[in-house]
Amino acid sequence: MTDWIRRGVALVVLAAAGASHALTITTNFASDGERIPSIGLATAAPTAVLGGGDLESIVRAAADAWEALIPDKHDFTLSFGWYDTTLVSNAAYHVPGAAGGWPTRTLSGSVAFNSNLANDLKMFVDPTPTVNEEFRYDHRTFLDLGAGPIEVSRQYVGTTEASRSSIDLYTTALHEIGHALGLTSWDFYNQEASDGKIDVTLAPFAGTDIPIHSTHLDLPDSMLSKWRFWGQRREITQTDLLAVCQINGFSQCEFELAPAEFAGDLNDDGVVNAADYTVWRDATSSAARAADSAQMTAGYDTWSSNFGRTFQQPETFSGDYNADGVVNAADYTAFRDHVANGDLRSDGNGDGALTTADWQVWANRYGERSPAATTAPEPSATFLATIAVLTACRRRR
């Protein structure tokens, strides 16, 4: 069976097999006035959040997502709450708690989510964080980081006014728990990160080198990247999971993640049709189909069960044909490729055809930036360590 099928079409079956998990994340919510360990006294929730959900449910859903992918036995305690994080981050930050055992792993940590009323970065508090009904699928991206293709991006874009104009708190919670589970300033992480990458030894990705910057993955679209955009939801990718598992010495991680919502749309044109069957057929030899008929059938069934389904394309502002928030030379490259493939993401004037008029839209808006392309940068590990020390000193007084 080819790597493409093993890591792509057939993922939905393998995810079900790993439903039982042994990683246990205990989540402790600090209400207004209660202490968040190593951080301070929690505040009330900000009044300007959008969506109508609550922080406790968001963090629990994010913890469940991580638990489901790591069957290795390990107990971790996460304390969290609302807190004024303005001096550190406009969204949230993590402070490590304790570490121990063999191999050395994080045992506890704390996360503060910004409650500052003056914060102009609105947060989307999804009442149903495990369902993406306020978002639509945007894309998945695979890169070869040294040992074959690996998923580095899994993204959705907001479809409601609230989800489009805010930072997704569920994505933020997934991100901060990723830090808490190992991408933090402990010696065991710093030693691995000293050469600017995580050297992977875990099968089936042994030989992969994950680029890092401080305690973040140096892959702009990954969930554990330093940057997040308004109106965007990111989910755990193979690379995010692999980084956490390698740092902790977890050996049973479920790298065969369930597919995103485009299941069956194998050529990424927004429609599940006969062309996708051709992609599936061409990616697998007759010998491979005979040798692993169960997996091959699963891939075919995924396609056939979604046949005829149309997936909405991500919204962009006209001329921004690669949806990165800026109209620049990269969008011309995207336009050229979309014209070759008949991809209507470069239909800048919305007339249903790709013509020179769409090129003119790009040319007219060259240099413009989408108002949604505002990022939420993460604080540095050094700064967070300083905050933790100062907090400890204040408690001693």
UniProtKB/TrEMBL annotation:
GO biological process, one term: polysaccharide catabolic process
Assigned keywords, A-Z: Signal
Domain of life: Bacteria
InterPro entries assigned: Dockerin_dom_sf (IPR036439), EF_Hand_1_Ca_BS (IPR018247), MetalloPept_cat_dom_sf (IPR024079)
CDD domains per record: Dockerin_I
GO MF annotation, one: metallopeptidase activity
Signal peptide: 1-22
Protein's name according to its UniProt entry: Matrixin
